[in-house]
TrEMBL record:
Residues 1-18 form the signal peptide. It comes from the Eukaryota. Belongs to the tannase family. SUPFAM superfamilies: alpha/beta-Hydrolases. Its EC number is 3.1.1.-. Keywords: Calcium, Disulfide bond, Hydrolase, Metal-binding, Serine esterase, Signal. It comes from Cladosporium halotolerans. One of its GO terms (molecular function) is metal ion binding. The keyword Hydrolase applies. PANTHER family: CARBOXYLIC ESTER HYDROLASE, FERULOYL ESTERASE B-RELATED. This is Carboxylic ester hydrolase.
Amino acid sequence: MILPLLIAPLLAGPLVLAAGPSSCRVDKFPYPKVFGTRLLDLKVTEVHQYAPWPYGLGSLIAEERPINFCNVTLTYTHPGWNDAVNVYVWLPLEEKDWNGRFLGTGGGGWAAGFEGGNAPAVGMGYAAAMTDAGHGSLDAGVSAAVISDWLLHEPGSVNLPLLYDFAYVALDDMTKIAKRTIEAFYGKKPDYSYWSGCSTGGRQGMVQAQRFPENYDGVLSVAPAMNWATFVLSEIWGQIVMNELGVHPPTCEFHAITEAAIESCDELDGIKDGLVSAHGQCKFDPQTLEAVTVAKEVWRGPHNEAGDQEWFGLPHEASPHISELGPFGGMLETECPPTAPTDGKKCAGRPFIMTTSYLRALLAKDQSFDVNSLTRDSFFRFLRQSRQEQLSVMDTADPDLSAFKAAGGKLLHWHGVADQLIPVNGSANYFSRVEALDPEVRDFYRYFDVPGIQHCDGGPGLFPATALDSLVDWVENGKAPDSIEGVAGNVKRPICPWPLVAAYKGGDADKAESFECKEDFGAFGFPKVKGGSYLKDEL
Ligand SMILES: *[C@@H]1O[C@H](CO)[C@@H](O)[C@H](O)[C@H]1NC(C)=O
Ligand SMILES: *[C@@H]1O[C@H](CO)[C@@H](O)[C@H](O)[C@H]1NC(C)=O
């Protein structure tokens, strides 16, 4: 019996050891058995010379070039849930183009994944995977980020399976499915597994570290939408203030105020460069102009009449960029009819679309709910409901990372200080809460405040384009990042692990050596926030 078994493979055809185009076939991919799932469909096609790459939020930067990959699409359901989730695994077609690693890529807004995430990953040599979490995201690309119809079956009835898929269930599935698909194709498991994503993608990275600590060796989480139950609703705070005042100042007024704030705080780090490095030290306090009341409220963040802070506001340098969100609204976005007088009295607010859609679908549970009718009272009622219903679903800020640490995982987290949508302080706040449980947190988790970078990318700051490489170096060579590199054209600068900031030492301001990470930057401390129930009085 032994002999036929040995020669059987020889009879089946020439023995091909190297993986290659010939193995990108449906019969190469037995359905990976993943607990709680059932396969509906499997499609395998070769994709050649794929370019240009769609935009996918800026946590991954790779030089664009046409890529060749085996496109494996697995569709599965959770029996009884009536869902159909697509996982897209992209495998560099030639084994020589594969760096031996797996990269899970995330989405943005309500999209669980983007082709624009997988493409740069494959371009960098990774086998990549993303999921649509069962509600589609691939075709519509980034605009899928704002489509939220799928959240409700009908008024009052949330599509809970799809909500759970989006919150975390599909993120575990995609990882397990992808790893087995990679093994089927290349005949070996990936040497290392990584996650990369910004915004929702950043939250998804936190989901992996918090809920599925063995899935990834390294997680790159950028501007994570993690304090979901609190921050998404809080983004409407400035709009409520404007509605109460009956004045919606034009966006240019907010620009003027913010430019003045940057001007007055710019030199705190020792160099005048249009960037505020130590935003905690920026104590700009304008007294004039009507828009000031609103701007101050947005900087302060939501608070009740007794002055208790519910969440963080935006740093001063964040607000000028609100108008650049175009059709999606924003924290201070307003809209005036063409003939309106310039006093802002005939204008209306245009809250950020994620807040609007969350409020409508998951809180009011009615897509026709008028978000501009919100008052302080109804805001606080919705906030309480949001925490009651979503702290264990969409919120992703459990500070206990002990299982991730024990599994050897490394977490690199950065957040742009000029983020106009997710207040940057929520990120450092999470890091502090992890540190409160584990003083040795820096052994496996480092957080970086990145001056001048807006939500995911853009803005006047220096972009940490090689953050993923720093993470890989940490995981594979044990080299913990004492700083990450910020780049803008030929200018380089260190970005320091929070709470350190890059201070100018002197010399050529375009060179990284002219800066050092410094601690003694003045008094420091968070305002107390209530946040979710996890937060209690921890800070
Ligand atoms: C990959 O395959 C799926 C399923 O056939 C298809 O929908 C998708 O467009 C393909 N992706 C690319 C980049 O060709
Ligand atoms: C953000 O945190 C800094 C400390 O890093 C603090 O000084 C500042 O007041 C906080 N800003 C807001 C808006 O809460």
